[in-house]
Design a protein that fits this description.
298 residues; three-stranded antiparallel beta sheet
């Protein structure tokens, strides 16, 4: 006769006795958090101390940078915006050459998935809590950490290791975001030390200010158009090397016209000759500008 198929036993039967059942569930959960890495420290006291310190530092950095953040409620990224000075330009003004800089704005998107979601190895154990408005889509890691402390020690030990790893990754992310914002201040300090001139950090209002410019659009002006520097008609200005210059009290100054709204311009220093633009983002860029200034001073 044909042999009967062996019935599948399926999943192991869970204990019926209450305390054995509790132990069985805890062991299953514990296995989820045990790391395969070597030399893992499961010391609860040490990990609690380090996680608390990281959470405090992260909160401080978060408070310093989020004023510059936008779009963090959409998708997986946050956009930071900073105001500063990105270049030093050289322009001609009459017979002098001016070194100037102008207010600039730049933005950068950072992936912030770590602030929005828990990694898979930390889910399904505790209920995630979120921060108060306006950051209600970001996880409240301080509250999550406090909830974790209610876990049984057998589960808490490996759980804290996983949580600390994740909190450290958030610390790195926030540090990168703050470092990018601080580049603006470092550029200001470079300009101040190079030109011995005090600069205030620009704001959004410095990007669109009414300005007058030394005119380089000769053929576009009517004879009776007024100069914004001396108030005289365009045709009354002296012509020197195709440029129009004021007479009388403003003798030597170029005809000035308004070309709309633009960034606020800061005059750093003047020389007799030269024309160039210098980026100042990196040390090598800054070295080029210093070398050029040394040449102008020689």
């Amino acid at each position: 006769p044909p042999k009967k198929k062996r019935e599948s036993s399926g999943a192991p039967k869970e204990p019926e006795e209450p305390l054995e059942f509790v132990t069985h569930i805890r062991e299953k959960v514990q296995k989820r958090f045990v790391s395969r890495r070597k030399n893992i420290i499961y010391d609860i006291e040490k990990n609690v101390r380090e996680i608390r310190a990281l959470l405090n530092i992260n909160a401080e950095i978060f408070g310093r940078i989020m004023h510059a953040a936008s779009n963090y409620s959409n998708g997986k990224s946050a956009t930071l915006t900073r105001y500063g000075f990105d270049v030093v330009k050289v322009r001609q003004s009459g017979e002098k050459t001016e070194f100037v800089t102008e207010a600039a704005v730049s933005s950068k998107a950072f992936l912030i998935d770590a602030l929005l979601h828990l990694p898979a190895n930390l889910t399904s154990v505790l209920v995630v809590q979120y921060q108060d408005a306006p950051y209600s889509n970001l996880i409240d890691y301080n509250a999550f950490f406090r909830s974790a402390l209610m876990l049984h020690d057998d589960i808490l030990e490996p759980f804290l290791v996983k949580l600390k790893d994740h909190v450290e990754s958030i610390h790195v992310l926030l540090g990168e975001m703050e470092s990018w914002l601080l580049e603006s201040q470092r550029k200001i300090e470079f300009i101040e030390s190079t030109f011995d001139k005090k600069l205030e950090a620009p704001s959004a209002g410095d990007l669109y200010v009414e300005q007058t410019f030394d005119c380089d659009c000769l053929v576009q002006h009517q004879h009776y158009e007024k100069c914004l520097r001396c108030g005289c008609d365009f045709y009354t200005h002296s012509i020197i090397n195709s440029n129009r210059f004021c007479k009388g009290l403003f003798s030597g100054e170029r005809f000035s016209c308004k070309k709309g709204r633009g960034p606020k311009i800061y005059i750093l220093t003047k020389y007799d000759d030269a024309k160039q633009t210098f980026e100042i983002a990196t040390e090598s860029d800054q070295a080029k500008l210093k070398k050029f200034l040394d040449y102008m001073d020689s």
